[in-house]
Amino acid sequence: MTKPNQGETQLEDLEDLFENAPCGYLSAQPDGRIIKANLTFAGWVGHDREHLIGLKFQDLLNIGGKIYYETHFAPLLRMQGFFNEVALDIVRKDCSVMPSLVNAIERRDNTGGLQFIRITIFDASDRRRYERELLNARRAAEQATAELRDLNLSLEARVAQAVDERLRAEEALRQAQKMEAVGQLTGGIAHDFNNLMSVVLSGLSLLERRLAKGDSDVGKYVAAARDGANRAVKLTQRLLAFSRRQPLSPQALDANQMVSEMSEILRRTLGETIHLETVLAGGLWKAHVDANQLENAVINLAVNARDAMPGGGSLTIETANCHLDDVYAVEHEIRAGQYVMVAVTDSGSGMTPDVMAKAFEPFFTTKGVGKGTGLGLSQVFGFVKQSGGHLKIYSELNHGTTVKIYLPRLYGASKPARIAVDDMAASGSSSEVILVVEDDEQVLRLVVQMLRELNYGVLEARNGAEALHVLDDHPEIRLLFTDVVMPDMDGRQLADRAKQAHPELKVLFTTGYTRNAIVHNGMLDPRVHLLPKPATFEQLSSKIRAVLDSG
Questions:
Q1: Cis preceding linkage at 75, omega within 30
Q2: Can you give the CATH number for the domain in which 445 is found?
Q3: Distance CA 295, CA 379 (A)
C-alpha cells in the first residue's frame, strides 16, 4: 500500500475541519444552484450531498423565504457582493423547518468575473425560540395591563398585580438582553469564521489543483490553510473561555516564579520600544489556578498594553498578597478573603469611561479592522471568573491602564503546578500499544494514522462496548485514548469500567467540548489527562508520550 505523502495527510486534516464545522457551508453558482456542501449542512437538512448538488439553494427555503431570496436577497447580493445575517427558514427532508441565519459573499476571479457564491448558514432555532418567548411575555404584559384597567380591584390586589407585571417585564427585558447578546455573538462569529474559512477553503482549493497536476510544491498553500485552521481553533478556545466552558486544571502556582520565567519571552514579544519591569512581592502566597491559562491571560494583557503604546512606553507586571473585605466583595459579587494579585500596568493611551464599561464584552474592540477579534479581554475575564477570582480595570485617558487579576489563595499542602508539555513530536515503539476509541470514522482514521506514523502499536474501536472487548482480547494495551462524548457509553464510563479490569491501564481523554463527564464546576477532575480537539500532530505525540511516561 502506498504511504500517503505529507500534503495528502494535511489535506485530509483540513477537509475534516471544513466538513465538520459548527455551521453549514455551501458553494453555489450565481443562480443559486449548489455545487458544493459540507457534511454539517447535509446532516442538518437530512439530504445526501449527492442529492443537494444541482439543487437551487432557494428551493430549500419555505415559500416566503424563496420569494424573499429572489426579490431581495439575490438582487442585493449582486449590487454589493455580500449579504449579512438574513433570517430564512430552511425546509428539511422530513418537511420540518430549521430557522437559520444566512450570510453570503460573491467570489470573483482576477478579471472580475463572478465564479461562485459562498453561503454560510447558522442554526437559529434557539434564537427563534427566545423571540417567541419574548413576544409571549410582551403579550402577557399587555393583556395584564388591559385587565387591570377593566377590573375594579382592591388596593391589595392592584399592588400584587403590579408586582407580577413588573416581574414579567423584567423577565422580558432579560430575554431581550439575551437576544442582543446572541445577536452580537452570532454576528462576530459569522464575520470571523467567514474570514478564517475563506483562508482554509482557498488553500484547500489551490492545494487540490496543484496535487492533481502532480505539483508537489504546495507548502505555501498548506501553510495558509493551516494558519486559517489554527486561527479558527483559537477563536473557538476564546469563545469557550468567554463562556466559562474551558476545562481548567488548577494547581499550586508561584506567581513570582511564573512572571520571572515569562519575562524574557515577553521582552521579545513586546519589542525594543517597550520597557518591561517586574515588581515581585516577598512572601507571596501560592495561588490555586491553571498555570497555562494564567500565562495566556498575562500575555493577552501585555499585548493589549503594547498596542496602547504605539510610540513605546513602560509596562510593569506586579504581584502582591491582597485581602478583599466584605464590603468590596458584596459590591462586586465575589467571595471575601485572601487573594494573590497579578497586575499589568502600562503608560499608554488609557480608556474613556464608556470604553472601560464595555471592555469585557465579546467582540468589542477599539482596534482597526483585522487587528483584533475583540475576544482578548472577555477571554481573560471568563478565565478569571471560572477560576473563582476577580478582575478589575483602572484607567485614565492619556495616563495609562492597570488591569488587576485576583486569584484565590491556596491553603494547606501544595504540589507544584504541572509543567506544560512542549509541542514537539515524540516517537514511541511498536511494543507500546494504544487503543483508540472514537465514534467519528474520519477522526478515528486520522488519529490511528498519526499514531502509526509515531511507531506505536495501534488498535481501534468505534464505541465503548467494542473497546471493552478489544481490551479483554489484548492485555498488552498500555494506553486507552478515548473520546469523551459518545453514544450509549461515554468516555468516562468506558475508562471507569476499563480500569476496574485493568488497573495499570493509562487513560487519555480527548474531546471538543467536555460537558460534565470529566469536568465539574469548570475544573478538570483530579488525575485526569485531557487532549482538547483539534490537536496538531506535535501536540498529540507529546501528550501521548507524557501520559505513557507518567507515574
A1: no
A2: 3.40.50.2300
A3: 13
C-alpha cell at 103: 450570510
Instruction: Report, in this order, helix, strand and coil percent for the chain, each rounded to 5.
Output: 45, 25, 30
- pTM for this predicted structure: 0.45
Instruction: For residue 99, tell me if it sits in a domain.
Output: yes
DSSP string for residues in 93-111:
TTS-EEEEEEEEEEEE-TT
The answer to whether the beta carbons of residues 178 and 185 sit under 8 Å apart is: no
Residue 149 forms part of a structural domain: no
Number of domains in the chain: 3
Q: ∠357-360-362 over CA atoms, to 5°?
A: 120
- 3-state secondary structure (DSSP) of residue 150: helix
CA distance 494 to 491: 5
Q: How many whole angstroms from its chain centre is CA 518?
A: 18
For strand 390-396 and strand 477-483, is the pairing parallel, antiparallel, or unpaired? unpaired
**Angle ∠(226,227,230) on CA atoms, nearest 5:** 85
Helix (H) or strand (E) holding 114: strand 114-123
Cβ atoms of 222 and 15 closer than 8 Å: no
Assess whether 24 and 103 both reside in one domain: yes
Q: SS3 sequence, 14-76?
A: HHHHHHCCCCEEEEECCCCEEEEECHHHHHHHCCCHHHHCCCEHHHHECHHHHHHHHHHHHHH
Question: 393 and 445: one domain?
Answer: no
Q: Is residue 155 part of a domain?
A: no
Residues 394 and 479 in one domain: no
Residue 69 and residue 88 in one domain: yes
Residues 453 and 536 in one domain: yes
Closest CA to 297 of 275, 273, 317, 277: 317
In a domain, 35, yes or no: yes
CATH number reported for the structural domain that contains residue 49 in this entry: 3.30.450.20
* Residue 270 belongs to domain with CATH number: 3.30.565.10
Backbone angles phi, psi at 239, to 5 degrees: -65, -40
| Residues 397 and 480 occupy one common structural domain | no
Structural domain span for residue 256: 251-408
- For the chain, list residues with pLDDT below 70: 1-11, 148-159, 162, 169-203, 206, 221, 224-225, 228, 230-249, 361-376, 412-428, 512-526, 551
Distances (CA, A) of 166 to 136, 141, 153, 155, 162: 15, 9, 17, 16, 6
85, burial (CB in 10 Å: exposed 0-12, middle 13-18, buried 19+): middle
273 and 234 assigned to the same domain: no
**According to the model, what pLDDT value does residue 370 have?**
44
The model's pLDDT over 125-170, given as tens digits with 9 standing for 90+, comes to: 777 777 777 777 788 777 877 776 666 556 666 667 767 777 776 6
Phi, psi of 313 (to 5 degrees): 165, -160
165 and 144 Cβ atoms separated by less than 8 Å: yes
> Are residues 216 and 259 part of one domain?
no
